[in-house]
Amino acid sequence: MGKKSKGPKKKHDAKPRKKKQAAEAAQSFLEDESEEEDFDTMKLDAAAAANKKKSGGFQAMGLSHAILKGILKRGYKQPTPIQRKAIPVVLEGRDVVAMARTGSGKTAAFLVPILERLGGRSPHTGPRALILSPTRELALQTHKFAKELGKFTDLRSTVILGGDSMEDQFEAIHENPDLLIATPGRFLHVVMEMNLRLNSVKYVVFDEADRLFEMGFQEQLTEVLHRLPEGRQTLLFSATLPRLLVDFARAGLSEPVLIRLDVEDKLSEQLKTVYVMCRNNDKTAILLHLLKHVIKPDELTFIFVATRHHAEYLRDILERAGVSCTYAYSSLDQAARRINVSKFQARQVPVMLVTDVAARGLDIPLLDNVINYSFPPRPKLFVHRVGRVARAGRTGTAYSLVAPDEAPYLLDLHLFLGRELSLSNTNSSPEESGLCGRVPQAVIDEELELLRCMQQQSVDLQNMERVCSNAMIQYLKSRPAPSSESVKRMKQYLREDLPAHPLFQVQSTGEDTRAKLLEGMKKFKPASTIFEIGNTGKSAAFAVMKNKRRKHDNLIERLSARGAQVAEEEKPAAKSSNVSSSAIMAGEEEIEQAFATVIDNNTKVPSRKGAKGSAASQSAATKSKKAKPASFKDEQFYIPHFASDFHSEKGLELEKTFEQQASQAVLDLTGDDDKYLRKQKSALKWDRKRKRFVREDSDPKNKKIRTESGAWIPASYKSDVYKQWRKKAQMDARDEGSGDDEEGEAGSGLGKQKASACDRLGKRHSGPARQKGPKKHFRRELKTKEEILKTRKRKARLNYHVKKKHMERAAKKRRK
């Protein structure tokens, strides 16, 4: 019995104990509710901080969920250095001038903060953000990238490009986009046509700002800036920073922040450069050998040529040689260019022939190789050409075919980069970067024989080769001249015997003797002249040459000895000058005066390097003073005749202004067609009023300019295209909108309320008394809110009746 009564007692005592514990827990929870909430908040904050610290990426930048989701959907996990520095500063609302090399992620550095600050759709009229790009391709890529990043937002973006229909662009602007991406020429044309004030723009981005100035858009940019509000946020993103951009930043930006990365290294560390010295006639043969035996078939390769005729000629040759390729140049049709680029991006063809129009416009993220078939005449152009490869941590190779007339540009490039030109030797390895060498003649002869067979079998190739030679003559006329110092130094390099490049030494086994013999035959000069061969001492010509040699031999020997002495003295000086020539484009004092804040990769490291470099240079100078007598310069008081950053600034100098480019019909960096060269200033046109021929191009009274699409329009950009579109679309002041952006009749705006339905019906059906003559009624392209709502109600009513009938029919079938 005791055991039986023990069990129920335990159960009876357990229930009150549990209730008591629950009551005590509830009481303690009610008493310390605030303390618990504070503790939980601290816990969550600590976890968030730990997560941010752990991630160190876009999650730590305080971005919204929609933008962060778009970034992660795009595949980005960690921001690049320029994105890590620029995005927080842009989010603060500061004006920014960002400087980083091509392929470092500058596009996302300004798109992410702009999309974040825009938030969502705004009821206000007019675009709130404006992005100006130098080329059509770059604008399209920026628009595509913006749509991908803003995929989970309700933001709307549009593009305004030259060559597209202006009526579609008018309609796109009336649809009230949040983000507007445009090229400067067409955008200013649309602005002048619609008389837009752009008061709603809060953020302005100048993408590839140095290229915008190079292409002559300075006046368009200044005009656009005048129409923007003063409280805007301006962002300049560029790969270089010449002084003209510093002056522009002083004028158009308020207390800007300069963000500069990779200033000293103008080329990527992952980029391998190969320089091949050859003749112009051997370039095609060397190109074939590189594509067949050196470059792998699955690697994507860009080949830069001078003109579009070279692109077409080389395309035919490569196709006949079994190398599938495509091409793109400026005068190619837009649809054909888009198809060719998509084929190359999809790896359907591994090789693409391009002109300088693709140096900035086309974005191929997985590019492996670049071949400079025609060496660029400007160091800056070389940097942007090879900037297509070795991006985002990938490795790449840049092959440059250098002809004798292009060799001085190679020295200018190394002086601009602050590097020494290293020649290949027998101990050089194929993996070494920056070597300059030649190609064995046996390799060239093998490919030249194949080219001869192709040209003998095809008359088209012979004609195309002749066209290429004529186009090259026109191209050389527009090519800038190299520096005289580089021409003198390159003559000394060309006199020496240049060994074969390590890439071709495998094929050159046993060819050293033959190469030396051929070089000796090329450099052979007979000791006697035509006047001395076969003549006796009694002839007058022999006596004249004998007197000439007696006078000039000693002078020639002295000059050659002096030249050798100068060459030996210049070797250590060239090394020290190369170290000091890697300065930035604008001076430090000018940058500190122009920008309120300067953000660098690491501010302390360059100063230490600079201090070490200066100390090393001073010690080297003292050693050289002990070894050899110093020059006449006084190191303390001597003022040089050019600045220390002369070579870098000369390499980055911009093209002439827009007026000078229009008056002088020459081929600039992006020109690849000779039609502009054929247009001379003396081109005459019949004037009906004067009854005689006049020079239209050189006449200052002809106030017309050429747009990006190639059409000539008045200099004021004003025509009747917009008025005709309004008339065709039946757009009145109430319907067409943009009260904040337009003047005159369009001042009522899209944000204004529309007239009532009764008024509109009264105006539309006012009777025949108000109509004077027959009038054509066009259906409007844009619908009002009332019309859209009415259409939706009609569809809903129709769907309801249809469903009701279906239900009745189904019920009748069930009854049967």
UniProtKB/TrEMBL annotation:
GO terms for cellular component: cytosol; nucleolus. Its main location: nucleus. Its EC number is 3.6.4.13. Pfam families: DBP10CT (PF08147), DEAD (PF00270), Helicase_C (PF00271). Residues 694-707, 781-790 have a biased composition (Basic and acidic residues). SUPFAM superfamilies: P-loop containing nucleoside triphosphate hydrolases. It comes from Rhipicephalus appendiculatus. Residues 1-20, 762-780, 791-816 have a biased composition (Basic residues). It is an enzyme of class 3 (hydrolase). It catalyses: ATP + H2O = ADP + phosphate + H(+). The keyword Nucleotide-binding applies. This is RNA helicase. PROSITE patterns: DEAD_ATP_HELICASE, HELICASE_ATP_BIND_1, HELICASE_CTER, Q_MOTIF. GO terms for molecular function: ATP binding; ATP hydrolysis activity; RNA binding; RNA helicase activity. Residues 612-622 have a biased composition (Low complexity). The lineage of its organism: Eukaryota, Metazoa, Ecdysozoa, Arthropoda, Chelicerata. Residues 1-38, 604-628, 688-707, 725-816 are annotated as: Disordered. It is found in: Nucleus, Nucleolus. Belongs to the DEAD box helicase family. DDX54/DBP10 subfamily. Residues 286-434 form the Helicase C-terminal domain. Keywords: ATP-binding, Helicase, Hydrolase, Nucleotide-binding, Nucleus, RNA-binding.
